[in-house]
Amino acid sequence: MALPLILREKLRLPVIGAPLFLISNPDLVIAQCKAGIVGSFPALNARPAAQLDEWLHRITEELAAWDRDNPKTPSAPFAVNQIVHKSNARLEEDLAICAKWKTPLIITSLGAREDLNTAVHSWGGITLHDIIHEAHAHKAIEKGADGLIAVAAGAGGHAGSMSPFALVQDIRAWFDGPLILSGAIATGRSILAAQVMGADLAYIGSAFIATDEARASDEQKQGVVAGRASDIIGSTYFTGVFGNYLKPSIRRAGLDPDNLPVRDASQMDLGAKATDVKVWRDIWGSGQGISAVKGVVPTAELVERLAREYAAAKSYVASLG
User: Fold this and answer.
1) 273 in Cβ contact with 263 (< 8 Å)
2) Do 210 and 297 touch, CB atoms closer than 8 A?
3) 266-291 average pLDDT score
4) Alpha carbons 283 and 246: distance in angstroms, whole number
5) pLDDT tens digits, 56-76
6) Under a CB-based contact definition with an 8 Å cutoff, are residues 28 and 17 in contact?
7) How far apart, in Å, are the Cα atoms of 285 and each of 57, 82, 157?
8) Residue 268: its pLDDT value, please?
9) What distances in angstroms separate CA 180 from CA 167, 168, 251, one per listed residue?
10) Half-sphere exposure of 315 (CA within 13 A, CB side)
11) Half-sphere exposure of residue 54, counting CA atoms within 13 Å on the CB side?
């Protein structure tokens, strides 16, 4: 199955900037789209809920103005991430606002709903559902999702535990639609590697934390710059769902990252507190690819680096004959 036009026609690179809880905002999304990759943000980042309408208005208008002024380098589409889990009391209201602005891409997480996919299709949008194993992938497609985001081992925040080689292989055995790979991708070489494995696009999150436009503290940005794969630890303790976090932020919160209790998924609380520590604000989600991040830069500069590395990697592969 060919990729939908929206995922190939205006993209400089085959990349989706992953929605970063608390961090992704209109500044980051607009910069990503202008640079030629899909920009995205969680609907829940807009607080109060009425702010979502303001954000979508601004993003839509600014990207339209960019397209008018830059017809040779039009902006990439943007996406809104919706948490489908029952704990999200805003879902219906947020989806209605997305319908108002005809949001081109909706990324769904923590649950698959046929009625949601139907609603998005009614305004011409496309749905991409993130999954961590094949069973969830089958369920998402059965319920009408257009594409899948395979969240493999090494991804930041809520992540899977499967090797990207195995996860993509299992999905491609039966699904030929849009497939995006997530997990420790922070270089142009790894973008190409994702495609060689069978994915259509790469899903990059943690590298964008360390950008000027990201709504993260200076401490968090510098934590990403200083961090390496060995500084990441996976745990269910903070939300009840397995996630990857930066060890230094856990230590700074007065906890021992090497001795965190196990928390059952039945106690899931995506905005949980561990004692007086707020997850995501104080405990920083991060993927294992951050050693490629060497400094805090504008989003356009980061995308430019990825583009150079991607082109160089393709040239190298071509030279192998």
Assistant:
1) no
2) yes
3) 74
4) 7
5) 999 999 999 999 999 999 999
6) yes
7) 29, 18, 4
8) 55
9) 11, 9, 33
10) 7
11) 9
Residue 114's Cβ-count burial label (10 Å; 0-12, 13-18, 19+) is exposed
Do residues 51 and 229 make contact, with C-beta atoms less than 8 angstroms apart? Answer: no
Amino acid type, 147: G
Q: What is the C-alpha separation between 205 and 185, in angstroms, rounded?
A: 8
Please report which helix (H) or strand (E) contains residue 244, including its range.
strand 243-246
> What is d(CA 200, CA 90) in angstroms, rounded to the nearest whole number?
31
- Write down the residue that tokens 């990441």 correspond to: 232
CA distances from 205 to 32, 153, 159, 290 (A): 12, 14, 12, 10
List all residues 6 or more positions away from 83 whose beta carbon is below 8 Å from its beta carbon: 42, 43, 44, 91, 109, 110, 111, 270
Alpha helices in 77-187 (DSSP H): 91-100, 114-122, 134-142, 164-172
Q: What average pLDDT does the segment 290-308 reach? A: 98
8-state DSSP, 179: E
Q: Tell me, yes or no, if the pTM score tops 0.85.
A: yes
**Residue-level pLDDT at 279:** 81
- Token digits of residue 234: 């996976």
